[in-house]
Q: What sequence folds into this?
């Protein structure tokens, strides 16, 4: 392309300089940049965190029951230990970068301080059975949202909890 006046500007040079000017203008824009939106939490991690918190409450409930019912402590302690094992198995599936803010791994409290609304004497074998029943009945819905590995673990945990309901029927306050 030739213009009068002797200056030679090619089409390619013109397009290149226009593109460079556009990039420079975009980089120098005074419009505020949107902060990067955080990625939504992984649904499996959210589910695991919830399961861990629920299992910690159940371990804690058994710890309070063992303290409140010394005559039944020997009968109740194996139930608490099985729930502590479930808790450990659930924690093992939790990605390492996602802390749960829960009890340290491997050491759930045996008898934590009771909340004001739940004194140790308020924990009965019937309350344990109700908690086990609720936990076992929640497992099918949780398995529907779980990965295959977590679903298998939840099926085992749910079966154990269902057996606990029956076995606790033989333990008297």
A:
């Amino acid at each position: 392309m030739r213009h009068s006046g002797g200056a030679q500007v090619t089409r390619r040079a013109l397009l290149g300089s226009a593109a460079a000017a556009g990039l420079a203008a975009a980089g120098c824009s005074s419009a505020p940049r949107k902060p990067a939106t955080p990625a939504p939490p992984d649904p499996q991690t959210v589910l695991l965190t919830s399961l861990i918190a629920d299992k910690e409450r159940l371990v804690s409930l058994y710890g309070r029951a063992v303290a409140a019912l010394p005559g039944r402590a020997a009968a109740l302690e194996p139930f608490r230990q099985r729930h502590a094992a479930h808790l450990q198995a659930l924690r093992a599936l939790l990605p390492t970068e996602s802390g749960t803010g829960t009890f340290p791994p491997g050491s759930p409290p045996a008898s934590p301080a009771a909340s004001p609304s739940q004194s140790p004497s308020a924990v009965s074998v019937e309350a344990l059975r109700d908690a086990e029943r609720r936990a076992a009945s929640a497992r099918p819905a949780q398995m529907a949202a779980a990965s295959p590995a977590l679903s298998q673990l939840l099926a085992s945990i749910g079966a154990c909890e269902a057996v606990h309901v029956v076995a606790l029927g033989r333990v008297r306050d």
